[in-house]
Amino acid sequence: MPRSAQFDRSQALNAALKLFWARGYSATALPDLLQAMGIARSSFYASFGSKRELFIECLELFGERTLQGIAAREDSLPPGQLPRAFFENTLLEPSRQRVAQGCMMVNSVLELSEVDAELSEFAASRLDLIESFFARCFTDAQTSGALDSQRSPKELAQLVMTINLGLRVQSRKNPSREYLQSIVDSSLDLLGLTA
Amino acid sequence: MPRSAQFDRSQALNAALKLFWARGYSATALPDLLQAMGIARSSFYASFGSKRELFIECLELFGERTLQGIAAREDSLPPGQLPRAFFENTLLEPSRQRVAQGCMMVNSVLELSEVDAELSEFAASRLDLIESFFARCFTDAQTSGALDSQRSPKELAQLVMTINLGLRVQSRKNPSREYLQSIVDSSLDLLGLTA
DNA sequence: GCCATTCTGTACCGATTGGTACAGAATGGC
DNA sequence: GCCATTCTGTACCAATCGGTACAGAATGGC
Fold first, then answer.
1. Residue A65: pLDDT above 70?
2. What is the dihedral of CA B64, B68, B70, B75, to 10 degrees?
3. Contacts with B41 (C-beta within 8 Å, 6 or more apart), sequence order
4. Gap between the Cα atoms of B131 and B152, Å rounded
5. DSSP code, position A92
6. Mean pLDDT score across all residues of chain B
7. How many Å does it take to go from CA A16 to C1' D20?
8. What are phi and psi of A194, to 5 degrees?
């Protein structure tokens, strides 16, 4: 077995994710990708198949990370505080640059819904996983009495998700920390999840 | 003065708006535009300057129409019902196709924020006009006693807008009528704007 | 050191991008 | 009917798109 790969695949994948996340699918040209990933054209096609396949891989990775970022706190936080933790961790984090990129799944759904339905639906399905996670948490919490709300867990999850989507647009429109903080606060107050 | 234009400029503009609205800026190619608008290449550049200028004009038109769609009801509806009227008129309208296109301003902010800051900020400024309209309405209503809420008008307008943005993503993700209806209902309930 | 294998870098591909040049048709004033 | 003007349609432009072909360098096993 001669000559192993001279680049770190997962590092290259991360670089691609970063670009796609910031600029979207169409606006990210191959030369830009290659430069950011630090690999040659042929290595690119050998390792990732095509731009589209790479994009799917990035989307999958982004979705997985996002979900993990929430789910990781399930054991240490009461379910009513999960939305706040999610919002604050992603919107009030140090890097304004990253916040200004919004959510890659939201960006992709909007960019591609009338252009590449398959990609758009894939991104949407990843968003649904997050909503389902919230719904499951709220269900558990309500049956165990840890959360009291006159709304059904499903409705609550839907509302959290709608506000989340709205926040992702807001964060792309204006990533200022105080601005987002104020919206997060009043949104959670509205939801009765002040904790 | 010989030979007047042989096409209806505003009709062509509307056709362009439709395409840009559905597919976004980059994904809308010039040949597609020309065909939809029913004009020749040279007429296009003579009348609209460039693809980018045309896009701005469409964005302006879309923003104007959206704002008018809300403001037109200011005199006939109590201010607390303006958000519901806005949501229902745009999300529960007969054409699923149009609903699935979401809001052109939201779409543009997300598509272009890291690609063409000027266009993105222009779209964002048009969204701000809508938020300002709500803020003004709520202010008037609160001083006249027509609206009672423990929230400030500005905060209320911000929340309505955040939910609105979330709904525009939802509508692109899943334009189904019942789905959107349920989110609209619970959102307005949440805001205390059931009326 | 040799060779098979698999990497990297680059030249190249046809298709498409937004935009321009220009020929020729059509239409106003006279 | 004539002519200046302004339209329309198309040929063309360089640049870029995503993707492929292939030469040559590098590295494993022996």
1. yes
2. 150
3. B30, B34
4. 14
5. S
6. 94
7. 22
8. -65, -35
Q: Is A94 exposed, middle or buried (0-12, 13-18, 19+ CB in 10 A)?
A: exposed
CA distance linking residue B135 with residue B131, whole number of Å: 6
Cβ-defined contact of A173 to B127 (cutoff 8 Å): yes
| Helix H or strand E encompassing B121 | helix B117-143
Nearest chain A residue to B114 by CA distance is A23
Residue B100 clears pLDDT 90, i.e. is over it: yes
- The span from the first CA to the last CA of chain A, in angstroms, equals 58
CB proximity list for B102: less than 8 A, separation 6 or greater:
A110, A113, B168, B169, B171, B172
Q: Is A3 helix (H, G, I), strand (E, B) or coil?
A: coil
Per-residue HEC secondary structure of B8-64 comes to CHHHHHHHHHHHHHHHCCCCCCHHHHHHHHCCCHHHHHHHHCCHHHHHHHHHHHHHH
Q: What is the pTM of this model?
A: 0.94
Rounded average pLDDT over B128-148: 92
Which residues of B are less than 8 Å from A159 in CB distance? 183, 186-187, 190
b/e per residue B42-73 (b: at least 16 CB within 10 A): ebbeeebeebeebbbbbbebbbeebbeebeeb
pLDDT value of residue A52: 97
Among B100, B21, B103, B101, smallest CA distance to B55 is for B21
B109 touches chain A (CB under 8 A): yes
Please give the full DSSP string across B72-118, using - where no structure is assigned. Answer: TTTTTS-GGGHHHHHHHHHHSSS-HHHHHT--HHHHHHHHHTTT-HH
